[in-house]
Specification:
- The protein has 41 helices and 35 strands.
- By secondary structure, it is α/β, with parallel strands linked by helices.
- The strands form twelve sheets. It has an eight-stranded parallel beta barrel, surrounded by seven helices.
- Strand 2 and strand 3 form a beta hairpin.
- Helix 7 packs antiparallel against helix 8, helix 27 runs parallel beside helix 37 and helix 29 packs across helix 30.
């Protein structure tokens, strides 16, 4: 017999989708016809059915009204396939339309549509919902579903009123809905935690509610907005999710409203106030409906649908619990008054031996799932009529596992403490990780019931805690974790400067002498370069709709050499602002742009040449040094050194005056090696929300700069959102947008269009432009003999333009004009390598070096106009040719900063080019490259998603840091040495805490089932060299 899980629903909420699924069972209904004539043929044509026979199978089941096997409806899981690559395998999957658009090949024609199917997990959720509401009947023996009369009525309803009437009645026959409505009627305003704590069989796994007191304290003390976001979205128990989803359904009918609730919780003498958005109030319509369901009005009390699966969820002995509880309900179902003794006697006749405490807990559980049970002293009466409850025909016996035995033993002795804490025993013996819930419930138990003071030590995903009473306490720590904090260092020349970085507070080293007496040695905190900006500051509540704080705005105003324009001056910018169809996409808080006053030189290079140290320059010096001075480490990086490097053109500080949200950083070979990340939409994928999310994500993981390479829809609006929410410099390739403005026709590109694009982006706040001005008409054919030709998008565009018009590139011809424009906003130029090699076979050829020579000429022209500039480099270069690239660039480009994509050192590893390029990146950065452009695993294959961005950034942080170590950057070894010492000391938390990717290292550690021992799982306790070394030192 198949194991189904009806009764409890966490995710489906769309009643329209539910109706579509029910239509599969109603021959001739609109959606049934659509499935046969359009959806299934589409899935067949785009090859998205899991097997070749599924089309005929599905059509056969839809050809007449008949019971349909559950597995045909639900389909199969993706198995070893990644979820994104899985194909449709179930009828219900085919009836659910996804949200994300994708491109499919239908009969040799590419179409872009929303994904026309879902997965088995989502399909199962909707099926369970339909069965639980009584719209489908489930046959246990045949494992099939068929539509019920009420389900058919719901499909055939022609008005919204009729649909809601049927839906409302179905909801009222679902006991958990009545439970939620009843609680709201009594208390009026409850959070999801307050509802969830009284919903379901609260003493067992599958019905957990996260303690609100602990959640509130964690939320108030959360270290950053990311942590608070995780608490809001991820931290809740199973019953909290059930309650939240039920309220979502009822909100659609107008029975419940969602109203923020300010709650006040106490921990010892400390009080915490917090507003919880997942809070609900019942409406008058909700009260009326509840009264009808419970027989409190003139109408007849509605029966309650109870499938046996509703009577236990994830308990280890769930089948036995369902049988026992089913029998109790059967015994109570004749509405007679029963005593506990009578129930125990009846169960004994069914070969079920239990005690009074268990029965009382079951009765309380029945009330908590929404059944109306009256209790007077020892007399129990079930007032509801139960339908759909099918008894077990097979013999089901009690499984005497450790969990069951211990829970039974403990249950009897819990006289004053709520039995919900019995769930701790389930967690303790579960094979799955329940660290967060175990720790939270333990803190809740000891603080609420035993009057201990309690506190969290971690965050939402790591709520390790401490419980204490007077001078005694205990650490509750079921998971090693990495705890960091945001710290700020102050400027000296400009005391108002607050330079943000990550501070790692390390735990002491504990050693034991030969007598076994422990001794502690403190470890100094480690400061880490931080690119995450305000997003990691718990005291700054970032609202993406308003953008980041404009930290440099006052510095810019104080210089009094810029002016605010009365309006945007680019024609395209004006056009976009006047198009009201874009209002829903547009960033709401757009500021008027600034520009240099006439005759004023406002670039960081102009200031540097004039001997002026700006706040930006001191900010950079503090940031590069971190806490070297406190540690007594000698450093050459002073504000004056920063100024001199910028003045000489050996370093670039990208800082558009219209991007005051950015935190100053510097690109130069005498500073930390930086990494650039690329994001951007295309004509086929991604949205504004996704690109902003990826931008913030790349900053979180360590991206120093960000290139927006968007080529799809709404480039202007996408860029505005990104710049306003980006704490690092943002770069673009203006030729991409210019080409979009002429519908992709290269021959129609003009200087006027390009010029307007530059001004548009300068006024939005772009900090640096990639300009492919190194492409010369005379050099284009040098790439003809290449294996892979021209692989740069910008390079190929400009090369094609030169050949079509048989003239010099307008970028080269107007380069001085470009410099005059960007100098008014302090936008830096990244001189693009349009003829970079696209494979190792083409490395260091005549085309590449001819362009490099031209860039050497252009960089001096930029410097003459006080424009900061750096040089882009390859590309694909085998290791033995890397040094020549670096030496030639330094010589021909006058030591301007070099910025390379990798280089990729071998072409045989698609899917792993983040590694092949990081190898080259580490080597060329050691030799002098100032910034590396990251590469993700998707390079050459697809646009990266968030996980690809994370992998790419971390991989390149490794390459950059390896180069910093090799170059001898001041303080570069501090973090390495601290982590090595933590590893040798078996200070696992500190090791993760200092890691580039603490989440991944912690994940691997936990997967090994480690328990913080003085050895790792690779060596074990007897073969650990570090442990043996410690033993030797005690001899």
């Amino acid at each position: 017999m198949a194991n189904r899980t009806f009764g409890w629903i966490q995710n489906p909420s769309s009643t329209n989708t539910l109706r579509n699924i029910l239509s599969l069972f109603v021959y001739g209904s609109d959606y049934h016809t659509y499935m046969i004539k359009e959806r299934l043929p589409l899935l067949r044509d785009i090859n998205m059915l899991k097997t070749n026979t599924l089309y005929d199978t599905f059509c056969n089941y839809l050809s007449t009204e008949q019971p349909i096997p559950y597995d045909i409806l639900k389909g199969q899981g993706s198995g070893e396939e990644r979820r994104n690559n899985a194909k449709c395998s179930g009828l219900v999957q085919a009836a659910i339309t996804g949200q994300q658009k994708k491109i499919y090949n239908r009969n040799d024609e590419f179409i872009e549509i929303k994904k026309p199917f879902s997965d088995d997990w989502t399909a199962d959720g909707f099926l369970r919902w339909a069965v639980s509401l009584g719209f489908l009947d489930y046959d246990y023996d045949q494992d099939t579903c068929i539509i019920t009369p009420v389900g058919r009525d719901f499909v055939n309803a022609t008005t919204e009123k009729k649909k809601n009437e049927i839906l409302g009645k179905a909801f009222l026959m679902y006991p958990p809905v009545c439970r939620v409505l009843g609680l709201l009627k009594d208390k009026r305003h409850l959070t999801k935690f307050e509802l969830g704590s009284q919903l379901g069989f609260t003493d067992e796994a599958g019905f957990t509610s996260y303690p609100q007191q602990i959640w509130v304290k964690a939320y108030v003390e959360a270290q950053d907005s990311d942590e608070r976001k995780k608490l809001r979205s991820d931290t809740e128990g199973s019953s909290d999710k059930y309650a939240r989803m039920i309220c979502t359904w009822l909100k659609e009918l107008g029975w419940v409203t969602r109203v923020d609730k300010t709650v006040r919780e106490s921990y010892g003498e400390k009080k915490y106030n917090c507003t919880i958005s997942s809070a609900y109030m019942i409406s008058v319509a909700g009260i009326t409906s509840y009264n009808h369901a419970m027989g409190l009005s003139k109408g007849k009390r509605l029966p309650k649908i109870v499938y046996r699966e509703m009577l236990a969820s994830k308990a280890t002995d769930a089948t036995y619990l369902r049988k026992r509880r089913s029998e109790i309900l059967r015994f109570l179902s004749n509405h007679k008054e029963r005593t506990i003794e009578e129930i125990l006697s009846y169960l004994k006749e069914q070969n079920i031996e239990e005690n009074e405490t268990v029965i009382k807990d079951d009765i309380e559980g029945f009330i908590n799932i929404g059944l109306d049970i009256e209790i007077k002293r020892n007399i129990i009466k079930l007032k509801d009529e139960i339908i759909k409850l099918k008894p077990y025909n097979d013999s089901v016996t009690k499984e005497l596992s450790n969990v069951v035995v211990i829970k039974d033993r403990v249950r009897i002795h819990l006289k004053e403490i709520p039995h919900k804490y019995l769930t701790l025993i389930d967690y303790a013996f579960s094979s799955k990780s329940h660290s967060r819930d175990f720790e939270a419930y333990t803190i809740d138990l000891l603080s609420k019931e035993l009057d201990f003071n309690g506190s969290h030590l971690g965050g939402s995903r790591k709520p390790d805690g401490i419980i204490y009473h007077y001078n005694h306490g205990v650490i509750i720590d079921n998971k090693a974790y990495a705890k960091r904090e945001k710290a700020y260092m102050q400027g000296k020349l400009f005391p108002f400067l607050k330079v943000g970085m990550t501070k790692v507070n390390l735990t002491p080293t504990v050693t034991k002498d030969k007598n076994g007496v422990p001794h502690t040695e403190p470890n100094a905190p480690v400061y880490i370069y931080d690119t995450s900006g305000p997003f990691s500051d718990p005291n700054i509540d970032v609202d993406l709709k308003k953008g980041l704080p404009r930290m440099r705005e006052q510095w810019i105003l104080d210089r009094n050499d810029t002016e605010q324009l009365p309006e945007v001056t680019s024609d395209y910018g004006k056009q976009r602002l006047s198009d009201h169809s874009l209002d829903s996409l547009r960033f709401e808080h757009i500021q008027l742009p600034r520009r240099a006053r006439k005759g004023k030189a406002i670039t960081q290079m102009a200031y540097a040449k004039a001997g002026i140290v700006t706040p930006e320059m001191e900010y950079v010096a503090v940031r590069e040094n971190m806490n070297c001075e406190e540690l007594g480490i000698k450093t050459h990086i002073t504000p004056e050194f920063v100024r001199d490097e910028i003045a000489r053109g050996r370093a670039v500080l990208p800082a558009n005056i219209n991007h005051p949200e950015s935190e100053p950083m510097i690109i130069g070979r005498n500073f930390l090696v930086k990494i650039n990340t690329n994001i951007g939409n295309s004509a086929t994928t991604s949205s504004i929300e996704e690109e902003v999310d990826k931008a913030v994500w790349s900053c979180k993981w360590g991206g120093d700069t960000l290139m927006d390479l968007s080529t799809g829809a709404n480039i202007h609006e996408t860029r505005e959102w990104i710049v306003r929410n980006c704490p690092v410099p943002v770069g673009t390739v203006p030729i991409y947008q210019a080409l979009e403005k002429v519908d992709g026709k290269v021959e129609d590109l003009t200087w006027e269009i390009y010029k307007d694009t530059l001004i548009e982006q300068c006024e939005q706040g772009v900090d640096y432009f990639t300009i492919h001005a190194g492409i010369r008409r005379q050099n284009v054919h040098l790439a003809d003999s290449r294996l892979c030709g021209i692989v740069s998008r910008g390079g190929s565009i400009m090369s094609k333009w030169c050949l079509i018009h048989d003239k010099e590139s307008f970028l080269y011809e107007h380069f001085d004009d470009i410099c005059d424009i960007v100098a008014q906003y302090d936008v830096a130029l990244s001189l693009g390598d349009g003829l970079r090699p696209g494979c190792t076979a083409d490395a260091n050829d005549a085309a590449q070096f001819a362009e490099l020579d031209t860039m050497g000429e252009l960089v001096t022209r930029a410097w003459a106009k006080n424009v900061q500039a750096f040089i882009e480099g390859p590309g694909h270069v085998p290791m033995h040719k890397i040094r020549e690239n670096m030496e030639r660039q330094l010589d021909h480009c006058h030591e301007a900063p070099f910025y390379t994509l990798g280089p990729i050192v071998t072409d045989i590893a698609p899917g792993y080019d983040h590694i092949t390029s990081a190898i080259g990146g580490a080597q060329i950065a050691w030799l002098g490259t100032a910034m590396l452009c990251y590469v993700t695993p998707k390079e050459h294959l697809a646009l990266p998603n968030k996980e690809d961005v994370r992998v790419g950034v971390v991989t390149y942080k490794i390459a950059a840091h390896a180069a910093d170590l090799a170059k001898g950057h001041p303080g570069a070894t501090i973090r390495d040495n601290a982590l090595s010492k933590a590893r040798f000391d078996f200070r696992w938390r500190d090791q993760f805490h200092l890691s580039l990717d603490q989440e991944r290292s912690l994940q691997y550690f936990e997967e090994a089932g480690h328990v913080d021992g003085e050895y790792c799982t690779m060596c074990g306790p007897n073969f650990c060299a570090a442990k043996l070394t410690h033993d030797l030192r005690r001899l």
